[in-house]
Amino acid sequence: MELLLVRHGRPHRQHAADGDGADPHLTPQGRAEADLLADYLADHPATAPTVVYSSPMRRARQTAEAITSRLVVPLRVDDRLREFDHGAPSYVPLELTAPGQTQAELWRALETGVWGRHTFDPDAFARRIDAVFDEIIATNRSTTVAVVCHGGVLNSFLGGVLARPRGMFFQPEYTSVCRVVASGRGRRLLTLNETTHLQLGRAAEPDAVRDRRHA
């Protein structure tokens, strides 16, 4: 079977005062990114997923809903796909830094269990991610499945596929796709951080729209 691993679209930067903590909604740009991915998958039916799994966190679920609405395939929300920042007071994207913490320190979160002011059990997180992907693979043989999740989830699972030491090793772009082939003989990474759908979408935009979106 083939796994399409998708990072969610661009979310709002939320703080404790906003009330949503580390569970923000997508921005308008994030929704547009999710729609571009959904259109791209629909235009390539031979490799499109027949089912979509999603983290329950808003930024992932809203991205997944864009895909399932366009493809008309089932959506299965699994709590085990939630990010390690679940319950944190604010959302800190991988590409930014948390107050009082350097980028290098943030990127050791899968080893240390420290993400800004939020702490988690990195061993329990790794076991949870391994378990959910083992189940997804075992349940969906000989088909293509999309899993919409988060940067930490992707680094944890793909680090295992590549037999890397635990830790962050790449920064997935918003709505990027990583492809993995899984079978009884093992798992193999095919592509990392695909953003073809975003490039095609931007190329098709009128100049005025593109300039306004990046202003």
Automatic annotation (TrEMBL):
Active site, UniProt feature: H8, E83
Domain of life: Bacteria
Region (Disordered), start-end ranges: 1-28
InterPro entries in alphabetical order: His_Pase_superF_clade-1, His_PPase_superfam, PGM_Phosphatase
Positions that bind substrate: R59
Gene3D superfamilies reported in the protein's UniProt record: Phosphoglycerate mutase-like
Name this protein carries in UniProt: Phosphoglycerate mutase
